[in-house]
Design a protein that fits this description.
mainly beta; 4-stranded antiparallel sheet; single chain
Length: 121
């Protein structure tokens, strides 16, 4: 089994910062990419940022220049530094891992349970 556990969410005022962390554990053979997605009430889950094993990053236009994703392959962790937060960043943030559980398995997506981020105006 694979588990992804997020931490670091909370309540912050507009203009403030938060840092999210996610650790992957369990039967993991290799991780290709990790990332963050978010979902606000009444909306679909959307990509925030991803980072590959090679270090290639991808950001949603709405967070470019404000959020920074990073990862620690040894610890199987991914981080999201969020600066200059806006009320529209309020959402549940989910950690994603795209990985193989053994040499022969296909790539699959695994998700954490989410952490709430609330930005007050």
């Amino acid at each position: 089994q694979v588990q992804l556990v997020e931490s670091g969410g909370g309540l912050v005022q507009a203009g403030g910062s938060l840092r999210l962390s996610c650790v992957a554990s369990g039967s993991i053979f290799s991780i290709v990419a990790m990332g963050w997605y978010r979902q606000a009430p009444g909306t679909q889950r959307e990509l925030v940022a991803t980072v590959t094993t090679g270090g290639r990053t991808n950001y949603a236009d709405s967070v470019k220049g404000r959020f920074t994703i990073s990862r620690d392959d040894v610890k199987k962790m991914v981080y999201l530094q969020m600066n200059s937060l806006k009320p529209e960043d309020t959402a549940v943030y989910y950690c994603n891992g795209r990985l193989r559980t053994n040499f022969y398995s296909s790539l699959n997506d695994y998700w954490g349970k989410g952490t709430q981020v609330t930005v007050s105006s």
